[in-house]
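Tokens in:
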């Protein structure tokens, strides 16, 4: 049975002609919040995650100064986003001339233009879709079409021990989740919430692009004989932080706010099949020298996640056959798992982005199937698609299962254990990283370390 469809048309930019600026604030003076009472800005789950990993709550966790936000509003400046970890605010102006206001504000130490609205963009509409998976795609295998890609990571053994992501919360950062609310294969997913940090927000993230739908399927689906994901028993938060209509540094701000939101909920694992280096305004493009894990706002934020107790799994990027070739941002971040793509013969996909980082670290970190990967599309059909976007959720789901099995490990210990279990760990390079993880091996090694 099909849903409805409309033709894609150009429409005026939904937020109207505008410019977004990132303001860098001097401090957090006047904040109403305290390190002694984190329950004001973090959930009990987020606090407990820090306690479990012996992580102190620090000044970066304190929200942006409320008096500073109030002062901006008094000047008629519209606030569209903010980051407490970076102490920045994203604001909307109708004209560049109004930036002179920023010079009058003593708590603004710097500002940067990060977005200018185009005249028109493509309107997001729902695609046609099947509510049910086609019977002809059923297989005798319990895992259906996803069996090979999970078996490649030796994940089925972990599932058979009962570790399927129970008790773990995974956030998916993407640009849209087309028809997830209507396709029956997604109805049994433990979805605990969703959010949108793109400016302006979508009226419905389930009519945006299907990329997130396919990523979610790799992780969360539980349709025996058709398709089973890597962490079907985990709980999920769907987050839109990618604006597929434009490409601008403001998407770093959206991603950053998404990360802080995920942290505040108590998320354990973030899957981010996103990456940036080239923008519509070419003067804002990054260079390879910027790939140190800290120069780009998105990478600096990503490098903080393990210190908050979260494992970030990020796609390496699909630039291997282009002029850039290197991993994207935030794949250059420290203390994350950057995932590249291999084919079913174990050979790297030619499109899979490579390292090293500008400061000489091995990247990608690990590899998984990506050429192709079986996914469920936004049209409700099982298809093969390619990209490191789908390699990352294969690893992210298995990370959640491994962490469920080894609950006393910290985020950094889990990351290291995954790398140590990979088939090139003793001889890594900047094409394959440390290789393909063996999650059963990681589990067995982790068990020995806990004795």
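Residues out:
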């Amino acid at each position: 049975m099909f849903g409805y469809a409309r033709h894609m048309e150009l429409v005026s930019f939904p937020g109207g002609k505008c410019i977004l600026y990132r303001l860098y604030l001097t401090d957090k003076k006047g904040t109403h919040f305290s390190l002694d009472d984190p329950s004001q800005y973090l959930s009990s789950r987020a606090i407990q995650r820090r306690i479990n990993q012996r992580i102190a709550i620090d000044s970066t966790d304190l929200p942006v100064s409320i008096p500073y936000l109030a002062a901006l509003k008094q000047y008629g400046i519209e606030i569209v986003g903010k980051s407490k970890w970076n102490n920045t605010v994203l604001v909307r102006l109708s004209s560049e001339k109004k930036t002179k206001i920023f010079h009058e504000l003593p708590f603004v130490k710097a500002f940067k233009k990060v977005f200018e609205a185009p005249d028109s963009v493509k309107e997001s509409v729902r695609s046609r879709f099947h509510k049910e998976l086609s019977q002809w795609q059923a297989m005798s295998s319990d895992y259906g079409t996803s069996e090979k890609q999970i078996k490649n990571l030796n994940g089925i053994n972990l599932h058979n021990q009962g570790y399927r992501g129970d008790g773990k919360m995974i956030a998916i950062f993407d640009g849209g989740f087309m028809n997830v609310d209507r396709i029956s294969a997604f109805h049994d997913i433990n979805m605990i919430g969703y959010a949108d940090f793109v400016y302006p927000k979508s009226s419905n993230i389930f009519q945006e692009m299907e990329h997130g739908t396919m990523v979610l399927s790799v992780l969360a689906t539980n349709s025996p004989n058709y398709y089973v994901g890597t962490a079907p028993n985990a709980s999920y938060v769907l987050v839109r932080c990618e604006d597929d209509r434009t490409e601008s540094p403001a998407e770093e701000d959206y991603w950053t706010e998404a990360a802080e939101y995920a942290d505040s909920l108590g998320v354990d694992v973030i899957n981010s099949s996103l990456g940036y280096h080239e923008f519509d305004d070419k003067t804002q493009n990054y260079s390879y020298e910027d790939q140190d894990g800290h120069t780009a706002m998105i990478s600096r934020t990503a490098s903080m996640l393990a210190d908050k107790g979260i494992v970030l799994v990020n796609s390496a990027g699909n630039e291997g056959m282009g002029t850039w070739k290197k991993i994207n941002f935030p794949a250059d971040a420290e203390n994350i798992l950057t995932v590249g793509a291999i084919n079913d013969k174990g050979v790297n996909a030619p499109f899979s982005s490579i390292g090293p980082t500008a400061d000489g670290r091995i990247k990608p970190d690990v590899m998984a199937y990506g050429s192709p990967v079986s996914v469920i599309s936004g049209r409700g059909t099982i298809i093969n698609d390619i990209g490191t976007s789908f390699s990352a959720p294969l690893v992210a789901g298995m990370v959640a299962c491994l962490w469920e099995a080894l609950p006393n490990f910290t985020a950094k210990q889990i990351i290291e254990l995954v790398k140590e279990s990979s088939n090139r760990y003793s001889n890594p390079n900047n094409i394959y990283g440390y290789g393909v993880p063996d999650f059963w091996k990681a589990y067995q090694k982790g068990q020995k370390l806990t004795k």
